[in-house]
Structure to design on (1436 residues):
């Protein structure tokens, strides 16, 4: 109940601080007899790893995962799976100047208010580094969703105000190939180039950028999600809003639906059981309807910037702050595999929950 | 684990179908020695009651609440509180034609896929009627938040494409008086008049409207919310997305934050511990920072419309459907007290959770 | 988290006080499409009802159950089931003298210490009356266990120091017929007669008696129970120890196993997969092994006695107390259906949990 | 929900197999600002360590604990604490002959039935080795209970049929000094000598012994425990019954209470708020009353014995088995710190839960 767990039957609990000895998670409820190796998880971690673009933190973390329990002779045993990722390149001394001052837009102030203590090194528990554990858990969840015929694809819809072309960035047609073709995971290569330029300019200015991630879930069977509070969309919204930078979540037509009329917003149903449109985003009354699930997450710009900002120190005195450290210029693209992982975990959990419901 | 519970320490479990014998909830974890009477809860229920405007369902429900447990001589005892609201005016036969056909935009199809059975009468468990239990629970939660100096105010920001004036509808200044002055709970009286007109037109056309609700939480102390999954914003997003009509949720600057730069999005901190702006919407790293919490929920138009729609029957054959029954033209304004209730429950829960954290 | 819930997937939350308006429970996670009527539940309640023997409370409660949700046209729908039992014959004024004095052996003192308030009427929430809700829930659980081929039988092994003949009271052979033949649910009719006499003598002396209940579960498939904390025996122990009067629980050989040697205690395994003996009581490493589950619960004598006792009042001053009210002389036999219900609920829950584990 | 977690607010999740890479646990909900070092935990682990008596497994495990998260500069931060204990001396090949045969009295058969796979090496997840994680977590829990003035003391009441002298082994007076004076943790030194002799004889005979552990909790404030299912005694019973070898649990007078009359069993209350006797074992209606909590756990003899036993192999064919490996002759004394740890965890959890209840 510390808030570090998600899922009911497929349950992930993460632990670890940015500059602590390690990060990791324990996964409870993973069914037995699933093939699982460290290599399976490593592939996912490599996508999230820092140091891969000029706009990402230069911190060098191999992010090597160890499976310490729950797997025997290459198969899951049904018992808890412990995943461990050692922190290697934690240059904590670079954060010494943040010991006594609160970074605007960060959890420094709120953690201290909540706990009366904070690990200031690299953001401690509030660091984006914690998401390495989520991605590792997501790779295990994917084993379950994949077996059920489900795939999850996230990509950059907007970055720094630059939108991908809506035709190229159509959730009905966007392909993995399109997405992995550039390092910003944007299905529109021209937009990607402009986004890179915007990142360079922001970096040069000591500033940072935000963006919008879109996620499409394909192959999801109807019937997943639990009325009335653990709706599929409610759980997905919580999962995405639980990522540090996310300030808004929408499903299907989302905010645009608020401006529609009922006749327009409703998706007509065609025989034998197909939806003519997908304003619902694949979910009706909190339960999947068999159509693709479509989600969007709005990500604020990275809070840590070199540009000098007005703040206070821990004694309440005014202070000026220029955050040096090692930081990304935007959470995009590194947030992309994190979004996918969160969605994978929610889907795996609801697949297991549905097994208990179904006769 | 049926999905009908929310909250960890202040826990609400709702039960009941639209045309069943009753609706209600059991509230666990309410602290003892709080003054609580049926009249306290009734006031909240009366705001949500159907039959109060021309655009709301003409169903006549007195919505009289009974407290069946957990209260002794006018005070809570710390044991579970059962709230019961009998259904009186359930005209189930009006729904007979919906037994064999799926209403577009509704949970009819997905409930049947999930459970293999559905109570078709008035939407069964998926009906908006279920929210009467949430509003009742919210009134109990409010006792806890009120004692902590917190207030929650929701209002109509947009309806049918008509936006309230941003100056009148400013979360920093909007007052309860402004909100209750018109029956659409819109702080801008002119906009409210246009909204009423739009509702009349939509009703005449057999159609329905959507809108945006904004919610401001004042007086919330810093330190509420749990890293890293049970963030305050994550729990609020889940709570609001768990309301039937909601398709999007944002906090603070929300989707607009995605287009900002870091220097603009960060809220500078002024001595002794005040935020110059509030793009964060009162929450940093998932923990309240003492500023107002600001939320917006996008509500799709009501799915039940008289206009004829294309659908299928339970055998997969094509069908035409014109939903007669008794329905609102928009979830606004009746969703307003529901949004407030959901937020109240989340806040009460996190207030109790923080007591366990604090030394 | 108020402690009034049990079960993870088949989850029962009870509510209600002895002299409140009603008692009842909400059942979450009951699978859909199960036949369920009020008559099904009534049969179970009738076994627990007061006023049936001379040694039981003369309180006259019809204990009529109403199903208020979760059932449609005679079948469960998968949504929460609310069961309501109105309290009719609550003679609260008979308890006025208990307002200011603590009954020895009761929760009066501890509830006041915990909550700072207590409903003194008839024991409030701590009353045995609360178990009416458990028996109702157990009747629903039985639908699930019965479908899985499982039966649960509880009976009186000892009452007031009088033991049933071990041959007649052998869990391997004891039959329902034997048990229901006398009103003390004792498989040994001679012992039952002596027990009745002991009850009469205790009643005449203004005193009360304790006893031991044995429970046998037949037909349970192997594989139920979750390592390492939610072991089947751990969950059963918690369930039984959570009944007011129970002070000890043992499984299989129980305390006698502590005096055995390993060679004696181990149950040899015979082909194809049968256990030669059953000292394990049907559970190995917390997981059922397919043999009968055998449990025993030690019940203390009823605390409410007419014999004058030494106590204190709520101001800490010494007091003498003779409890009048309406009380059973022993929790046996009325605790028998309660024990069965608790076991049924645990089994139903683990049946559903195993469905999520099994491929 | 895999069953490997215990506690609601102070929550411990263990992971690890006997011959896997490591064992450990994640602790959620530990309050911030508590002094915690590896040395604090090591002291507790050293008491449980194998290889310390001739009757314990000769496996050589240093059982060195690492704290990987949740502690900053020697103080807890309120975030999850990960404790890691590497397995060093896992002689797995010694277990090769157990790959295809089920050990009587063990979980081999039931794990395979449940999961369709089992890690046969050293018992896998069902091994007593898993309790190293519980003892580590118990040491953290002790920080919380100690600050509340609570102490927990467990000791050997009976081993191999030899009972400690009831005067020396009186929960009212037994001291830590008495208990640690001999390596069987028995407060009666003469009995301890006889117990050692019995262990030698059993070892020589290739057999094993059971025993009874008694636990006394001192200094516990009144008011802990939650009606009606999460009673303090119910949670303690579950915790103790969740230890592999335990087959029975009793509290206070326990099974003896079943033979008492009410006037005898009730503990008279003396001014200002003291109990004349303690048949209740410190708990009334599931809530602590301020008197000492007294518990007893019946432990079966170790299942792994050299004496040849009848069993079957995984194909259902008959087999003879003599378990070689490295095993204790009795779970006593190594189960003693495990019992203490389980009780510490339950108490720490209920202390935090009570904070949320109390105004």
């Amino acid at each position: 109940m510390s808030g570090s767990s998600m899922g009911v039957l497929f349950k992930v609990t993460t632990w670890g601080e940015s500059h602590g000895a390690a990060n990791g998670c324990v996964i409870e409820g993973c069914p037995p007899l699933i093939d699982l190796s460290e290599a399976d998880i490593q592939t996912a971690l490599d996508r999230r790893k820092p140091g891969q673009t000029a706009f990402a933190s230069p911190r060098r973390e191999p992010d090597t995962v160890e499976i310490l329990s729950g797997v025997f002779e290459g198969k899951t045993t049904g018992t808890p799976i412990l995943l461990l990722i050692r922190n290697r390149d934690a240059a904590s001394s670079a954060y010494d100047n943040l010991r006594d001052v609160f970074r605007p837009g960060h959890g420094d102030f709120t953690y201290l208010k909540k706990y009366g203590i904070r690990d200031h090194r690299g953001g401690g528990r509030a660091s984006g580094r914690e998401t390495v554990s989520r991605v590792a858990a997501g790779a295990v969840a994917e084993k379950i969703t994949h077996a059920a015929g489900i795939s999850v694809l996230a990509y950059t819809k907007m970055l720094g105000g630059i939108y991908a072309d809506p035709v190229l960035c159509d959730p009905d047609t966007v392909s993995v190939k399109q997405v992995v073709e550039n390092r910003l995971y944007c299905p529109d290569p021209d937009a990607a180039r402009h986004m890179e330029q915007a990142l360079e300019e922001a970096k040069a200015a000591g500033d940072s950028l935000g963006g919008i991630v879109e996620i499409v879930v394909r192959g999801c069977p109807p019937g997943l999600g639990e009325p009335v509070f653990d709706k599929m969309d409610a759980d997905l919204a919580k999962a995405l809003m639980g990522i540090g930078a996310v300030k808004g979540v929408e499903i299907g037509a989302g905010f645009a639906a608020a401006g529609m009329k009922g006749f327009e917003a409703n998706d007509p149903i065609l025989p034998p059981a197909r939806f003519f449109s997908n304003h619902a985003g694949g979910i009706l009354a909190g339960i999947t309807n068999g159509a693709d699930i479509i989600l969007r997450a709005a990500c604020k710009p990275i809070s840590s910037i070199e540009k000098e900002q007005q703040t206070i120190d821990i004694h309440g005195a005014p202070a000026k702050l220029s955050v040096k450290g090692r930081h990304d210029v935007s959470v995009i693209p590194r947030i992309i595999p994190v979004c996918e992982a969160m969605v994978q975990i929610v889907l795996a959990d609801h697949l297991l929950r549905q097994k208990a419901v179904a006769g």
